[in-house]
């Protein structure tokens, strides 16, 4: 049986008690199909007001974000959405037994787990956004669909002169690339020639690769100045499925994820081992789609369950 580390020791499965209990999973900025039904929900409106006050500027809802939106606008809007969705689902009786996240979603997971308070968590996201806005390398992200990793690896090897990195793997034929605008544009034709297709990802930065290395010292310093506590429920990394209840390890991994690729297969292994039920924390439905296509996982709640106000 698979063995997982929980704060430095072996852990077992979490008790699957009740249909409304599960592991809540938050997606990142790459979730392009946003659910806009929360835009005018009172809970979300209040959350947007809170993050706007913290940032000293008006933060628009995710549905209003555009190509020229700043990292502060992008990341704070999604953080507000994540926590609003969590509050609404909790009011409906859904109870997280652990919290996981993909990319930016790891910060929401840190708040839900109890490692960071709501205010401290928003400050952490703001620090991340400002560090990335200041120090991120030039570039963006692009999804590659329909190519196996071995085929994609050969393609990237043959195009070794291009500044392109695999920044996330969500399945055998679903990957994200990070790199310069020109190089990602140039490789699209090669992907199509091999039977794949590409989809732009509105991240505004080349996340989860070495192009983000200058962000690391900035974010490290910022997170050290926040108030951390060991979480009440396990926190799960979107990079490798690592599980912990140690606040120091969460802090370290929230920094390292800026330069390390996301691996949904590793997260899937952890989720299926710990608890079969998944609560989709949004902002879109990418977590639900991945969970439904992953053996052993069942989506028990998502933003679709949030009733009109």
From TrEMBL:
Protein name: ACP S-malonyltransferase
GO BP term, pick one: fatty acid biosynthetic process
PANTHER family reported for this sequence: BLL0263 PROTEIN, MALONYL-COA-ACYL CARRIER PROTEIN TRANSACYLASE, MITOCHONDRIAL
Domain Malonyl-CoA:ACP transacylase (MAT): 25-306
GO molecular function terms noted in the UniProt entry: [acyl-carrier-protein] S-malonyltransferase activity
Record lineage: Bacteria, Bacillati, Bacillota, Clostridia, Eubacteriales
Key words, A-Z: Transferase
Cellular-component GO terms for this entry: cytosol
């Amino acid at each position: 049986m698979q063995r997982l580390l929980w704060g430095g020791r072996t852990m077992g499965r979490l008790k699957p008690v009740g249909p409304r209990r599960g592991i809540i999973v938050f997606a990142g900025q790459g979730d392009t199909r946003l659910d806009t039904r929360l835009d005018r929900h009172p809970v979300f409106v209040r959350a947007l007001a809170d993050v706007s006050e913290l940032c000293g500027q008006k933060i628009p809802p995710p549905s209003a974000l555009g190509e020229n939106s700043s990292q502060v606008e992008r990341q704070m809007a999604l953080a507000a959405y994540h926590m609003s969705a969590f509050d609404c689902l909790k009011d409906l009786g859904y109870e997280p037994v652990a919290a996981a996240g993909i990319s930016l979603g790891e910060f929401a997971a840190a708040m839900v787990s109890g490692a960071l308070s709501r205010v401290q968590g928003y400050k952490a996201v703001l620090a991340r956004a400002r560090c990335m806005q200041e120090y991120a390398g030039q570039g963006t992200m692009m999804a590659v669909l329909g190519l196996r990793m071995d085929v994609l690896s050969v393609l990237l090897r043959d195009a070794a002169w291009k500044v392109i990195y695999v920044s996330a793997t969500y399945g055998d034929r679903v990957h994200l690339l990070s790199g310069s605008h020109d190089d990602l544009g140039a490789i699209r034709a090669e992907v199509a020639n091999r039977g794949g297709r590409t989809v732009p990802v509105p991240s505004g930065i080349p996340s989860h690769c070495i192009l983000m290395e200058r962000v690391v010292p900035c974010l490290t310093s910022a997170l050290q100045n926040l108030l951390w506590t060991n979480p009440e429920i396990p926190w799960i990394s979107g990079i490798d499925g690592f599980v912990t209840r140690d606040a120091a390890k969460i802090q370290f991994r929230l920094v390292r994820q800026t330069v390390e690729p996301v691996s949904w297969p590793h997260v899937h292994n952890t989720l299926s081992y710990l608890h079969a039920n998944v609560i989709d924390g949004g902002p879109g439905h990418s977590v639900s789609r991945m969970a439904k296509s992953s053996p052993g996982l069942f989506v028990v709640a998502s933003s679709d369950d949030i009733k009109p106000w």
